[in-house]
Design a protein that fits this description.
With about 100 residues, this protein is an all-alpha fold. It is built from 3 helices and no strands. Bound molecules: iron/sulfur cluster.
Length: about 100
């Protein structure tokens, strides 16, 4: 990703762990500042979600935000499956 806004920025900035005594949240916001205008942000986030990157800021989201995004997607997929099963049951009941 040569076009990435973080080219040349130390990788450690995107894996905040309170390094140097800096509070973690401040580090994450610093990294997210680069992501905000990054032309490859969608691809970066897709990569992180696809390969389950557990740590760091990717595509403008930290690990907690990505985990929440995945939880919501799983919940929505489960709700969709339930709706489809209910629809199939209703269809079977009317056919019987
Ligand atoms: S979105 Fe990804 S590639 Fe772009 S600045 Fe952020 S971490 Fe780097």
């Amino acid at each position: 990703m040569d076009d990435a806004a973080c080219v040349g920025v130390p990788t450690a900035a995107f894996f905040p762990a309170g390094e140097g005594g800096v509070p973690r949240s401040i580090d994450a916001e610093y990294a997210k500042g680069f992501c905000a205008g990054c032309p490859v942000k969608p691809q970066c986030l897709t990569h992180a979600l696809t390969f389950r990157e557990d740590y760091g800021v990717w595509g403008g989201l930290d690990e907690h935000e990505r985990a929440e995004l995945l939880r919501r997607a799983r919940r929505e997929a489960e709700n969709q499956r339930r709706r489809e099963r209910a629809k199939e049951r209703a269809k079977a009941a009317t056919a019987a």
